[in-house]
Amino acid sequence: MSAQKELDQQDTSSPVPTDEQPVQILDKDGNVRPNATVPDLSDEELVSMYEDIKLARRFDQRAISFQRQGRIATYAPMTGQEGAQVATSYALNDQDWLFPTYREHAAKYVHGVRLASLLKPLRGIREGYAVPDGVNVMPEYIPIATQVPQAMGMAWGHKLQEKTDRAVLCHLGDGATSEGDFHEGLNFAGVFDVPAVFVCNNNQWAISVPRERQTASETIAQKAQAYGIESVRVDGLDPLAVYQVTNEALNKAKNPARDERRPTLIEAVLYRYGAHTTADDPSVYRDGDEADEWKEKDPVDRLQKYLYKEGILDERLEAELDDRIEAKISDAIAEAERAEADPNQIFEYVYDEMPDRLREQQEELNALREKYGDEPFNGVLE
Amino acid sequence: MSSTTAPDAESPIDQLNLVEAVCDGLYTEMSQNEDVVVLGEDVGKNGGVFRATDGLYEVFGDGRVIDTPLAEAGIVGSAIGLALSGLRPVAEMQFMGFIYPAFDQLVSHAARLRSRSHGQYTVPMVVRAPYGGGIHAPEHHSESKEAFFAHEPGLKVVCPSTPYDAKGLLIASLRDPDPVIFLEPKLIYRAFKEAVPTGSYEVPLSDASVRREGSDISVYTWGAMTRPTLIAADNLADEHGVDAEVVDLRTLSPLDTETIVESFKKTGRAAVVHEAPKTAGLGAEVSSTIQEEALLYQEAPIKRITGFDAPVPLHGVEDYYLPQAVRIQEGILETVGF
């Protein structure tokens, strides 16, 4: 059965997940499903979550258009996944750590990374990867699945040092589950019973390779079983369900009951609406109609309908949110566009202490810039 | 010395850029040898993220142009097995920066199965990877790590700098009895077109190519850096009357020491240009070879003009990292003026 159909054919009598059924709280029209319980979030928190999901979608639109204008380089769009990204980060406490991939822009933002910092690396400026003290976010992981054993290791280190107040949340994609690092990380996590939550954002596509070509497993969640780790499947387009399962998994990681194990693999069943990156053209390899089916369960629309039905949101408040979102993004863009890269940054932070040979290389480059200006350093083939 | 086959004088000629020539090389050899199979991420229906396998899936089907799960160790390890079974696999690594999971398979096995089995088993296969910077790609997409592979006995390392060579070297690699790491300079994938015969021909994996004759200094380079080096050589001739010989190594392991040394004996001066960091880069190997073979001809220290001993930076300052014509010129002038 396709992942799409699974979300449609939920057994409406039970919110309890099985291997077959992702957890769902809201149906596609924003109604609370029978027997489902809405997570314990205040009205303010719900509105704030909705605002951040909307902001993520708007950020995505602006970033894609900026890439087309040549104002940023290659960008990995997140539309379709922002509900899951925002909801997982809402479940984090400040002391919890986040290991993002190159697509988790919104997850980083919610966990304390400024919007301007997200944009700077896209403009080729590294300082955006540096986050303020106390913001526990790693620089994005680009080589696939390499973050999995590292996140496990950090969680292990916290456990060994009895830092019991914190867990590690590690994002990955469906493609990552094919890499050895994924299996090694999960196996260690099981053996050493570490406080980590692994969120597989199964968006059905690894660039052009569909989920069924990635693995013959029925589900990604079931892979956890081989490592003695619990897993849960969740409707990744349902922010409330994602928040709930992530929150439970993080609590279990930090305070497991006597018979519980700390680590969890969450499979968020969702869809990459757009391209893998702005350098990719999905029309070459997938049917354009495929996305439409998923969009019927869109996370922004679903949460919006729910909030209106509950009387938590109205048009006046929504207009306020929209204005604030526009202002935040515009300010971030302006700040990112003011930032300039300095070639001396090439030589910084390679080692704690710069080796003599590297210092000589820096001096040579600066002597040439002194002599010829910066113009000859623009492009390599002219 | 590999056998070399010149293209048939009657062959029709296409104007191709380098990535089109790679694709044409794959197509040409796959048409002639049904044992050749292409495997990797996004190589099939998508035609490769750089379009290096464009159209092959439609022509040869998914039995020979195979989209794999996302796992470099799996792709290269299974390619070794495919080769042992009698096929001729061409594995694509999407970017050189992502080759490391496959490193164990390459250096512990592909490189050594011939020697470990006392000549009983061989691994004729090709691993293609786009390498190098200058296209403002995201982090980890711009590495030049040819030295890792040139350092491993049993692997051949090939790096074309022109469309004609890309096709001929690739076909030679696909016919070679040893495993070949075939590094494609993505900076010049689409930089220029040239005449490429449509038929089958080989450029041997044993010969460097003198791209520009000169008498004052020998400048050794390969891949994407061949172009800025030639630009620098022309500028020096025009502006300073310096006549540089430019030698494109083409095959980085085993090195064509004969051509390297012969050129140096003629000029008495040398510079090496590469994108990779200076420390333990292949420039050191070229320089040492010259010292061992032709010390008495040497007129000046051998200059290395390279990437810095730092990670390739994000694209905002990437163009400062790569050797530029201006840096190459300065290095050559320093050596000639010694």
UniProtKB/TrEMBL annotation, chain A:
Oxidoreductase as UniProt keyword: yes
SUPFAM superfamilies registered for this protein in UniProt: Thiamin diphosphate-binding fold (THDP-binding)
Key word Oxidoreductase present: yes
Compositionally biased tracts (Basic and acidic residues): 361-374
The chain positions of domain Dehydrogenase E1 component read 55-340
**What keywords would UniProt list here?**
Oxidoreductase, Plasmid, Pyruvate
What does the record give under GO molecular function?
pyruvate dehydrogenase (acetyl-transferring) activity
- Example GO biological process: branched-chain amino acid catabolic process
Enzyme Commission designation:
1.2.4.1
Matching Pfam families: E1_dh
- Return the InterPro entries for the record: Alpha-ketoacid_DH_E1_comp, DH_E1, PdhA/BkdA, THDP-binding
| Sequence segments annotated as region (Disordered) | 1-38, 361-382
Q: What is this protein called?
A: 2-oxo acid dehydrogenase
Automatic annotation (TrEMBL), chain B:
The cofactor named in the record is: thiamine diphosphate
- Enumerate the Gene Ontology biological process terms: organic acid metabolic process; sulfur compound biosynthetic process
Cite the Pfam families for this sequence.
Transket_pyr, Transketolase_C
Gene Ontology molecular-function annotations: pyruvate dehydrogenase (acetyl-transferring) activity
The catalytic activity of this protein is classed by the Enzyme Commission as: 1.2.4.1
Annotated SMART domains: Transket_pyr
The protein's enzyme class: oxidoreductase
Q: Which residues cross the membrane?
A: none
Under PANTHER family, the record lists: PYRUVATE DEHYDROGENASE E1 COMPONENT BETA SUBUNIT, PYRUVATE DEHYDROGENASE E1 COMPONENT SUBUNIT BETA
Domain Transketolase-like pyrimidine-binding, first and last residues per copy: 16-191
Which InterPro entries does this one have? THDP-binding, Transketo_C/PFOR_II, Transketolase-like_Pyr-bd, Transketolase_C
**What's the protein called, per UniProt?**
2-oxoisovalerate dehydrogenase
Per UniProt, the keywords (alphabetical) are: Oxidoreductase, Plasmid, Pyruvate, Thiamine pyrophosphate
